[in-house]
Amino acid sequence: MSESITALLVPVDGSEGSARGARYASELAELAGATVTLLHIIPAAEDPDAVADLLRAQRGPFAVACDAMGRELGEVDHRIAYGEAASAIMRTAREVGADLIVLGSRGLTPEEDAWTRSLSRRLLSQATCPVLVIPN
């Protein structure tokens, strides 16, 4: 394990919770001199045409949101991944050499809280780097 943090991965979904996680990661990155990668995940779909349509539909809004977040956070990298959330996050963490995954909790509804807890548990049990969950 590295003693210093050089790369942070932040899954974002447009929620206030993920924005809070991104802001926290940005502040931490500034202190550590690390890079920040924002990751938007497109859920797996059985129909390949549906995936292509989703990618096209979400690329524009994601780029706009990342540009706005980039102005607020400073320099960040943007990635889009496809598939099941935990697998996509871990795969991207390896690709970018993440030392830390920063995950904002959503906290809007009981279902979203349950989803965040489930994702957090999967990441904590399978990730090869530390995972930090930012509470509401």
Word description of this protein:
With 136 residues, the protein is α/β, with parallel strands linked by helices. It has one domain (7-134): HUPs (Rossmann fold). Helices cover 53% and strands 21% of the residues. Strands 3-2-1-4-5 form a five-stranded parallel sheet, with helices on both faces. Helix 3 packs across helix 4.
Task: List the topology elements.
Elements: E1 7-11, H1 16-32, E2 35-42, H2 48-73, E3 77-82, H3 85-96, E4 100-104, H4 110-126, E5 131-134
Helix pairs in contact: 3-4
Task: Provide a compact summary of the structure.
With 136 residues, this protein is an alpha/beta fold. The chain contains 4 helices and 5 strands.
Tell me which CATH architecture applies here.
Answer: 3-Layer(aba) Sandwich
Task: Characterize the largest beta sheet: strand count, sense, and whether it forms a barrel.
Answer: 5 strands, parallel
* Oligomeric organization of the protein chains: single chain
Total count of strands: 5
Count of individual domains: 1
Q: Spans with pLDDT under 50 lasting ≥5 residues?
A: none
Beta-strand content bin: 15-25%
Question: Radius of gyration in whole Å, from Cα?
Answer: 14 Å
- Provide the succession of SSEs: EHEHEHEHE
With strands numbered from the N-terminus, the spatial order across the biggest sheet is 3-2-1-4-5
CATH topology value: Rossmann fold
Shape: globular
CATH superfamily: HUPs
The CATH first-level class comes to Alpha Beta
Average of pLDDT? 80
